[in-house]
Write a structure and sequence with these properties.
Elements lengths: L1 H23 L7 H15 L3 H28 L1 H8 L9 H16 L4 H28 L6 H4 L6 H15 L8 H32 L13 H19 L4 H4 L2 H32 L11 H20 L6 H39 L1
C-alpha cells in the first residue's frame, strides 16, 4: 500500500511539474487557435452548416477559457517568462492573438448564438487588451538597447497587430443592432480603428516584403504566420464591408461611402493577390525543399486567413451587391474546414505525444 501511495504521489508530482512547465512556456500566439476556430465556425454558419458551426463555436469557448486561465497563471506565477516574451521581437507580437481571439469569439457569440451582452463584455475587454499590448509591445521594441537585425526580427506574425486592430473594429460593427442608440460613437470608433489597421499594414508589409526580397530566405524562415499577409487584408475587407452596410445608420458616414468602397475593394484585391504567392512559397518549402511538416501552434495562424477570406469575400459580395463573388467563398470554405481539421489532428497528436512522454518518464522513475 505504501509503495502504491508513493508511486501515485510521484506521478502526481510529475504531472504537476509538466503542467507548470506548459504554463511557463506557453506560446503567446496560441490564441490563434481561437481565431481560427471562431472564423471557421462563422463561415460554416453563414453557409447554413450549423452541424459544423455550433460544435466548433462551443469548442472555441473551451479553447478560449483554457488559454485564458493558462495565460493568467503565467502572468501570476511566471512573470519573468511573460515579460521576456512580451519584449521579444519575434514572440512579442504573438500576444496580439489574445486581442484578435477575444474579438473573434465575441463575433462568434453574436452570429452563431445571438448572445450580444457577453459579446459586448468581450468587446470592451478587447479594447483594453488592444491598448495595453499595442503600447507595451511597440514601446518595448523601441526603447530596448539590444535589437535583432531586420532579417531576424521581423516576420509575417507582426501583422497580427493589424488583425487585432481590425478584430476590435469588426466586433464593434456587429454590436450595432443591440446598441442602436450609440451608433455614432461605435461606428466612428470602428472607422478610426479600421483606418489605423490599414496604416499599420502599410508600414509592416513594406518591411516584410523588403525582408522577402533583399535578404536570404530559408525554408525555416517561412513560418506559418506568413499567411497573415493575406489574413490581415481579409479581415480589413470584412470590416470595410460592414462599415458600408451600416453607413446609412448615421449621417456622418454617408460621405465616407465612396471612400469605404474603394479601400474595401483594395484590401480584398490585396488579400487575393497574396494567395497564389503564398501557395507557391508553401510548395517551395515543403515539396521542393522537403521541409518536414510538424505540428506547431503557429499553424493556426495559417488556418485563420483561409476562414477569414471566406467570410470577408461573402460579406463583400453582399455589401457591394456583387453576387458572383459568393462563389469564391463557396470554394474557400472547404479549404478552411480542411485546414482546421488537419491542424486539429496535429494538436491532438501533439497532446498524445506529450502524455506518452510523461508516462514513459514515470515508468522509468
Amino acid at each position: 500500500v505504501m509503495n502504491t501511495a508513493a508511486v501515485m504521489l510521484q506521478q502526481s508530482a510529475t504531472t504537476t511539474a509538466r503542467l507548470k512547465r506548459s504554463v511557463e512556456t506557453l506560446h503567446p500566439a496560441y490564441f490563434a487557435m481561437v481565431m481560427a476556430t471562431g472564423v471557421v465556425a462563422i463561415a460554416a454558419n453563414w453557409f447554413g452548416i450549423r452541424w459544423i458551426a455550433v460544435p466548433l463555436g462551443l469548442l472555441n469557448v473551451v479553447f478560449f477559457a483554457v488559454l485564458a486561465v493558462m495565460t493568467v497563471a503565467r502572468v501570476l506565477f511566471y512573470p519573468s517568462a511573460f515579460w521576456r516574451d512580451l519584449t521579444d521581437h519575434t514572440r512579442g507580437v504573438g500576444f496580439f492573438t489574445i486581442v484578435a481571439g477575444t474579438g473573434v469569439l465575441g463575433t462568434e457569440l453574436i452570429l452563431i448564438f445571438g448572445h450580444y451582452k457577453p459579446a459586448a463584455v468581450l468587446w470592451f475587454a478587447s479594447i483594453v487588451l488592444w491598448v495595453g499590448f499595442t503600447y507595451a509591445i511597440f514601446t518595448s521594441f523601441t526603447i530596448k538597447e539590444q535589437k535583432p537585425t531586420l532579417a531576424d526580427g521581423i516576420n509575417g506574425g507582426w501583422l497580427i497587430a493589424v488583425v487585432a486592430t481590425q478584430a476590435v473594429a469588426n466586433l464593434g460593427t456587429w454590436l450595432l443592432p443591440e446598441f442602436t442608440g450609440y451608433a455614432d460613437p461605435i461606428l466612428f470608433f470602428s472607422l478610426a480603428l479600421w483606418l489605423c489597421g490599414g496604416m499599420l499594414y502599410i508600414w509592416m508589409i513594406s518591411l516584410i516584403f523588403y525582408r522577402y526580397t533583399f535578404f536570404r530566405f530559408l525554408p525555416s524562415d517561412l513560418m506559418p504566420p506568413y499567411w497573415i499577409n493575406m489574413g490581415a487584408m481579409a479581415i480589413s475587407t470584412l470590416v470595410g464591408a460592414n462599415l458600408v452596410k451600416h453607413a446609412g445608420m448615421v449621417p456622418f458616414m454617408e460621405g465616407f461611402v465612396p471612400f469605404l468602397k474603394g479601400f474595401t475593394v483594395l484590401f480584398w484585391a490585396t488579400a487575393t493577390w497574396w494567395i497564389p504567392m503564398l501557395l507557391i512559397l508553401a510548395l517551395w518549402r515543403h515539396v521542393y525543399k522537403k521541409f518536414k511538416f510538424v505540428y506547431d501552434p503557429l499553424y493556426w495562424g495559417a488556418v485563420f486567413p483561409l476562414g477569414m477570406y471566406t467570410v470577408a469575400t461573402l460579406r463583400l459580395s453582399e455589401a457591394m451587391r456583387l453576387p458572383f463573388l459568393s462563389a469564391i467563398s463557396g470554394v474557400f470554405i472547404y479549404f478552411a474546414v480542411t485546414a482546421w481539421l488537419l491542424t486539429f489532428v496535429g494538436l491532438v497528436g501533439s497532446l498524445a505525444a506529450f502524455v506518452r512522454r510523461g508516462t514513459a518518464r514515470e515508468r522509468v522513475a
